[in-house]
Amino acid sequence: MRLHRLDITAFGPFGGSLTVDFDALSAAGLFLLHGPTGAGKTSILDAVCYALYGSVPGARQNGQGTALRSDHAAPATRTGVTLELTVAGRRLEVTRQPPWQRPKKRGTGTTLDKAQSRLREHDPASRSWKDLSRSHQEIGEEISQLLGMSREQFCQVVLLPQGDFARFLRADAEARGKLLGRLFDTRRFADMEKRLAERRRAAESRVRDGDAELLADAHRMQQAAGGAMEAADLAPGEPGLAESVLSAAAVARSTAHEQLTVARCRLAAAESAQASADRSLDEVRERDRLQRRFAEARQRAARLAERAEDRQEAQTRLDRSRKAETVAPALELRESADAEHRRAADAEARTRDLLPPPLRDAGAAGLAAAARRATEELGGLESARRAERRLTELLEERAGLDRQERADDDVLDESEAWLTGWEETRAGLQARIESAQQAAARAGELAVQCDTARKRLTAARLRDQLAEDTEDAAEQARAARERVLEAKQHWLDLKEQRLAGIAAELAAGLTDGDPCAVCGATEHPAPARKVAGHVDREAEERALAAHQSAEEHRADQEGRLGAAREALAAAGAEAGDTPTTHLAREVEELEQRYAQARDAASDLHPAREQLRQAEHEHERRVAAQREAAVRTAARAGHRERLAHEQAVLEEELTQARGDADSVAARAAQLERRAARFTDAADAARVAEGTAQRLKEADGRLADAAFRAGFATPRAAAEALLDAAAHRELQDRLEAWRQEEAAVRAVLAEPATAAAAQQPPADLTAAQRTAEDADRRTREAVSARDAAARRCAELDRLSARATASVRRLAPLREEYDRVARLAGLTAGTSAANERRMRLESYVLAARLEQVAAAATARLHRMSSGRYTLVHSDDRTGRGRSGLGLHVVDAWTGRERDTATLSGGETFFASLALALGLADVVTDEAGGVRLDTLFIDEGFGSLDDQTLDEVLDVLDSLRERDRSVGIVSHVPDLRRRIHAQLEVVKGRSGSTLRQHGVT
Fold first, then answer.
1. What distance in Å separates the CA atoms of residue 83 and residue 95, rounded to the nearest whole number?
2. How far apart are CA 148 and CA 153, in angstroms?
């Protein structure tokens, strides 16, 4: 990177526009930047940094960048910085303008203008500048990519602050680590340490969770083992936990299986004892049953002997009952005749009580004659009944006329009331129809407006999407341009290398005796040889093809960008500049108004339908009025005819009713009288017949009782038993006979008789013995089942614990591996003898490179006395890796850099800064830094050391570098001819260049 020109306007202490010609200053290799304190020497370096990165180092940069503006500038002058430089073979011009409060063009006050940036590239072919970008972000990315370093690295490498490096020499390892970490960006190694630590914690958590689950299974096995297993006295994550748990589980399983075998043996012994006790209990029960059976048979025989008289009496009653059964038909016939006679006499008495007193004692013939007379009188009332029914019909018909009259009056009143408001109802419905028609017209207009607004909203959304697509296309086009530039630079580099080694390529085609294509000589004593890394034609052509392919890709991306911009312009023309949110609100409002108008228009059909129904109702009401008037006139004549007919019928009925309330009542009286006389005559005839049949039944009963051997019919009736009593008595006699036979059979059984001869059976003792044996068996079964369950549970839990151990084995291996790596990278592992973190290890390698690069210059500045060396020794209890010592050749001893004097510290820090610049340059991808600035510290050097330091700085010209020294030392003004002087004044600082052409 080489600086060419810097234009400053209203920046820092510079109120006007100034230009720094770095090409003229760099021609001598060394130039001096000097001026009084506060004049603005550092501001020139700040301007360079601001042009490249858009910000200045340190606290001079505020959040908005407005603090960069000069207080001496005119109100209408805008602050700006333009830097022209060459980097990576490209000549660029960067212009940056921070935000500023400019005066308003109209009225008073100020308004804020945003920051602006511009990046241009010089085209040597056309000798003109080509705009590359005006985006802050794109320019920043482009510059950072080309320089290969951040702003912090640039300020440390290009703007060498000697005070910082002096502090670096005296700092401890932690402070050096922070500075080197910012310069070499070793955050990825720190991130790797963090990731390994996180992976270690995650693996440890998984192992602990697995161990906790394994311990839980161990506690369950301990509970299942019932005290036969000792719990592992280890915490989750401790070594040996899995082996301890599995060993204890194996011991518990062996103990449980032994206990199961013992329980099974006890169960077999208990079952054998229970079987013997059950057999003894069965024998005792059988002997007890037989003894009780014999005793019960003796008791039953005694009861039979006590009831022998009752048995004889029952047999006698059964024999007399069988004799009385021959008299039973006559008894039943006499009882039936007597009952029938009593019923007939009661019926006759009831019917005679209903007759008039004169006829109650009449015979059957007289009662029949009275019934015939009542029937004849009843037949003469039929004509009066028809007249009465007609009169009832007339009354109902007149009532119907009255109801019709009242209904017609209601119709007339209701129609009159409805027709009174007809005109108002019709006017209201017609107004609704007109309002709905107007709403329908308004809805049509709003529908067109909604459609137009929706199209604009769709176009606006497309415009926003196309804007994003355009930005993406612009980004891709920028990336394509970068790739084109990279490919072109690569091709040109290869072409330059090929041209540099073209002699070897031509020499490869030389043949002795044939003339050389370049010089024409036929002898070729020392043809050029290809060196390592020689570039041939094929490599150049491949690079050219890659450049052409990248150029085609760039053209495609440019075409896509143009198409996207055209589409964006078309969408913008249709949608306008109105924001999408505003259009969305407008569409929403139009849709709401359209919905309201459409709802109002939807009332048109219901209003028309209601008007049609109202007109139909009006016609029906008018017709109902006319029909009601016609019916009223017709009812008047009909009512007169019905009144005349009613008078005739009432006169006829008065004669037919007599003293009764009505003809029907008179007919009912005659019907009841005829029925009573008929019933009484029939009951008298029935009573006479039943009396005769009772007399005949008494004679036949007396004859049957005499023949059966009974003195009177009454004695035969008493001896006779009903079927239930007869069956009950016969069953009792049969039961006595069966009981007697059963008792004799039991007393004759040999086993029962033999049991009766034995001692009484002790059933209680036998049952107690059997129950004790059963209890012992159940206890043995429970113990056997508990032991079996314990074995099964321990087997299950052991298998589960074994599976958990197998599952945890890979996790433990991963945890051990990750923990070992994390400990090594964090510097806490015992294997890391120097307790050096990974980031410190990388920074130590960088510091070793910096020390080697700085030693080359320090050795010369100190006349071969001092050498910087890197030390990885530990200091106290801290960590090692970032130690820096100086070796004194005069004493041959190595000591800490903090022991150097002021002047020694200066040229040591200068050598360190130059060495760091070389290493950072290599780290940044080999970007050449052709312009460097060194700030202060020269006043601490004596004349000889100053000469040696200036010789070292002057030697940088051999590498085509220019070095600017920022210093107050007067002696430097005599030694360095190219100078840039900053002159301080009341109206702002100005610049003067001396010793340049």
1. 7
2. 9
Question: DSSP for 846-901?
Answer: HHHHHHHHHHHHHHHHTTT-EEEEEE----TTS--S-EEEEEETTTTEEEEGGGS-
- Residues of the chain with pLDDT below 50 are 63-64, 162, 878-879, 926
Yes or no: say if 967 and 34 are a contact pair by the CB < 8 Å rule: yes
Helix (H) or strand (E) holding 113: strand 110-113
Structure tokens that stand for 647 in this block: 């008078």
Token pair recorded at residue 331: 């008894």
217-240 pLDDT, tens digit per residue, is 777 777 777 766 665 566 666 666
pLDDT for position 618: 79
* pLDDT for 232: 58
What 3 state SS string does 666-694 have? HHHHHHHHHHHHHHHHHHHHHHHHHHHHH
Q: How far apart, in Å, are the Cα atoms of 926 and each of 488, 546, 684, 845, 917?
A: 18, 22, 156, 18, 11
Q: Are 283 and 261 in contact (CB under 8 A)?
A: no
Q: What is the pLDDT of residues 383-401, one digit of tens each?
A: 666 776 777 777 787 778 7
Q: What is the DSSP string of 918-958?
A: HHHHHHTTS----EEEEES-GGGS-HHHHHHHHHHHHHGGG
Identify which of 946, 967, 953, 926 has the alpha carbon closest to the alpha carbon of residue 857: 953
CA distance 890 to 904: 14
Map residue 514 onto helix, strand or coil: coil
Select from 114, 99, 81, 113 the least CA-distant residue to 3.
81
- β 30-34/962-966 pair status: parallel
Q: How many residues are there in the chain?
A: 997
Q: From CA 800, how far away is CA 732, in angstroms rounded?
A: 80
What letter does residue 760 receive in the DSSP assignment? P
At 722, give phi and psi (nearest 5°). -75, 175
- The answer to whether the CB of 248 falls within 8 A of the CB of 793 is no
DSSP reduced 3-state for 551: helix
> SS in 3 state form for 440-493?
HHHHHHHHHHHHHHHHHHHHHHHHHHHHHHHHHHHHHHHHHHHHHHHHHHHHHH
Averaged pLDDT score across all residues of the chain? 76
Q: Which amino acid, 301?
A: A
Torsion of CA 906, 910, 911, 914, to 10 degrees: 170
